[in-house]
Each structure stands twice: as C-alpha cells, then as structure tokens.
Amino acid sequence: MTPEEAATGPFFCSDAARTRGDPIVGTAPYGDVWILVEYRGGWPVNGFDGLDLEPDVKARVYRAAQAVRARILLVRRHGRRTSSGAAPLWAVLRYERSGTHRQRWGTWRSDADLTEIVNALDAPGQVGLPPVVLVCAHGQHDPCCAVRGRPVARALSERWPDLVWECAHVGGDRYAANVVVAPDGVYYGGLDGRSSVAAVGEHLAGRIHAEHLRGYTNLFPPQQVAVAAVLELVGPAGRHDYAVTETSRAGDRWRIRVAGRSPRAALFDVEVRAYRTAPTRLTCRGAGRSSAVVHEVVSISTG
Q1: What gap in Å lies between CA 70 and CA 31, rounded to an integer?
Q2: How many CA atoms lie within 13 A of 157 on its CB side?
Q3: What residue numbers bound the domain in which 29 lies?
Q4: How far is 284 from 289, CA to CA, in rounded Å?
Q5: CA 291, CA 282: separation in Å to the nearest integer?
Q6: What is each CA distance from 57 to 64, 89, 119, 125, 193, in whole angstroms?
Q7: Cα separation of 50 and 44, whole Å?
Q8: How, if at all, do strands 164-167 and 132-136 pair?
Q9: Residue 252 within any structural domain of the chain
Q10: Are strands 267-276 and 242-250 parallel, antiparallel or unpaired?
Q11: Do residues 244 and 219 touch, judged by C-beta distance below 8 A?
Q12: Which contiguous run of DSSP H or E holds residue 33?
C-alpha cells in the first residue's frame, strides 16, 4: 500500500475516472477479429500469454493472431458454471463491414487441440449466429474489472445465459464495467447491472444508444466519436445504419462525414478535436501518471 492509499484508502481507477468525468467515447481498441479460449482456472495477469501451455502451440496461435490483428481473450461462464463433463470451447469471431458476421467454434481438451484456431482463422465461419456478449472481469489485471465487472456479468448471465461470458482484459480499465459485443465490434463502458441489461437488450434489438458507448472497433477514435455524436443527435440506430464515408485531418482536428444507409437518411459533417489530458493515474495497478488523448465534438451539421 502506498502512503497515499494509507491516508485515503485503496485507489480504484474507475472511481477516479468518474470523479474526473473522463469521457468514454472514442476509446474502443481497433480490431475486427477475436479469438476466445475458455479457461476455467485462474487467469494470469497477462491472460493467454501467461497460460502454462505447450510453447509451440502457444507460439503458433499467437503468430496467427498477430497476422490478422486478432485479440486473444480468455473466457469463462459467470460463476465458472459448466456443463458436466463438457470440454472447454474456443472460438474465432470475425466482423465484416457488410454486416455478415462470422463465427467458428470448437472444443479443446489438450494443448494441441488449440492449433485448430490457426486453421479457423483462414476458414470462413458460420453466419447467422447470435452475437457473444463479453464482460471484462479480469481482476488479476485490474481490481476494477472484478469489482465492477462481475456484478454486470451476473446480471447479464441471468438474462442471457447462453450469450454471456466473462472475459480477460479488453482495454480501458478505468471505464469498468466494460462490455464488448462481438463480432459486432461494439464496446460499452461505465456500466452497472441495471444499465448493462438495458444497453445489451437494446443492442440485441438493433438499437445502439450513444449513452455508455465507447465506440465501434472498425473505426478509429475520432470516427467513433463522430458516429456517437450522430446517435446522440438522432437517437439509437442499428450497427450498420450509419457509416463513415469521408475523413480528413488538419492538425488536431478532423472533419468526418457520416452517412445513413437508407436513401432518405441525412448526411452529417462532424468536426472533432483532439487534446491531451494532464498526467494522472489511469489504472489501479499502475502507480505512475500518464496523459491520455481525448477526442471531443466541436460541431455537427447536416449535409
């Protein structure tokens, strides 16, 4: 315990972020492929990398993931519930801009079984499956992920037991509780039990709200902010109802055009500014101070 903690109590980065009013929009990490590995034991602080697996197997999966910029996440059911005798699962989830998302699932009992992930990354997956709801609950990585994530995982699992998994670190500890809907590629943050059920329920019904939205993972931060601004202005919409069609940058400012998919939908021109925050402590386990880049909307107009 640091002297500061001895005087004020334990530091929780998500509490500090809420106190500062840290914006969450524009903070979804970029990517469109996810590898899930069900692991029912304790999770190492560095997730898949820290598992005691056959080195060659781990290296093959890791290299294949790097080649397509896939994120590897350990997953488990809330409460570590399992079907009696069932083998752990793995999955490859892939986002496609057409909206035809693909998933491929398998099982593993030995380390060697995980090499099937490598083949799955090169194979088309199945379409038409419901999305997977991932709740970061990786307490070994950051205490806030467990303190805030597990109650959310419980609430969501009670409502959608077949869709919801606890997962390892997804990025943005201070925005806990974090939920990722994949392969839709949508990040939500700052959730609790009630708001998570509302957000996921609306998402599954094809209505994504700006509130609690961190961003779409196929977009870069200023583009994420622009789309969220449109949703805040016009109301919730489906994952593919709006698309970024133009992006230009001049210094610390971006001009981003967002277009609706339907013929009668409006065009929106959004100006976004980037700036750095003052250095502060951003995670529970990192005692050092760092600045963060924030993107904010300067103006929005219809074209």
Answers
A1: 7
A2: 17
A3: 11-218
A4: 11
A5: 8
A6: 11, 16, 13, 22, 37
A7: 5
A8: parallel
A9: no
A10: unpaired
A11: yes
A12: strand 33-38
The answer to pTM > 0.90 is: yes
Tens-digit pLDDT profile for residues 259-303: 998 766 789 999 999 999 999 999 998 878 999 999 999 999 987
CATH of the domain at 187: 3.40.30.10
pLDDT at 84 (0 to 100): 65
| Joined tokens for residue 201 | 């329920």
List the single range of 7-11, 18-22, 35-39, 173-177 with lowest mean pLDDT: 7-11
Residue 300 domain flag: no
Q: Supply 93's token pair.
A: 């989830």
In a domain, 276, yes or no: no
- Number of domains observed in the structure of the chain: 1
The burial of 101, by beta-carbon neighbours within 10 Å (0-12 exposed, 13-18 middle, 19 or more buried), is given as buried
Cβ neighbors of 35 (< 8 A, separation 6 or more) are: 61, 65, 70, 71, 72, 73, 90, 91, 92, 93, 117, 121
Q: Beta strands of 123-239 (E only): which ranges?
A: 132-136, 164-167, 179-182, 186-188, 213-216
Whether residue 144 lies inside any domain: the answer is: yes
C-alpha dihedral sign at 138, 180, 15, 156: negative
**Rounded distance, CA 97 to CA 184, Å?**
9
- pLDDT for position 264: 65
